[in-house]
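User: quick one, sequence for these tokens?
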């Protein structure tokens, strides 16, 4: 059984601005970042269908989560679909699918993320915890880039 996660945030910017910020290094690092001192984010992205976006993040160089995303769909500025392999701190891994949608709504962007395929409720709920901060940090990056 798959356990899915949906999260959305209304961002005070046009879909093109939000999409572009999310697909640029600063926005990617903001999305995976944390406001804690010492939190590490390393991101390398080949933004094309079939391209790979590698993100490593965590509390220290010796304790990093590793995500390998492969772009399945890039439809600027409306949608991105990625298949993802996540390697956890204990070395275990699992595969999921991420879909990001950028919908214009009254001059702003409703950015929605649907994360499909979690193997357990616990893993899904663990990922839910950081999403409000991830979307808030991305919004700050969008607004700072104006």
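Assistant:
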């Amino acid at each position: 059984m798959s356990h899915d996660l949906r999260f959305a945030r209304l961002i005070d910017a046009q879909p093109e601005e939000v999409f572009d910020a999310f697909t640029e290094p600063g926005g990617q690092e903001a999305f995976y970042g944390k406001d804690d001192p010492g939190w590490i984010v390393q991101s390398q992205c080949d933004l094309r269908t079939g391209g790979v976006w590698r993100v490593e993040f965590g509390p220290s160089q010796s304790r990093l989560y590793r995500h390998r995303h492969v772009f399945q769909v890039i439809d600027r500025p409306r949608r991105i679909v990625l298949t993802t392999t996540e390697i956890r701190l204990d070395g275990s891994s699992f595969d999921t699918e991420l879909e990001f949608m950028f919908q214009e709504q009254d001059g702003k962007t409703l950015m929605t993320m649907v994360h499909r395929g979690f193997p357990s409720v616990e893993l899904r709920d663990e990922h839910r915890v950081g999403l409000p901060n991830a979307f808030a940090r991305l919004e700050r990056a969008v607004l700072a880039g104006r």
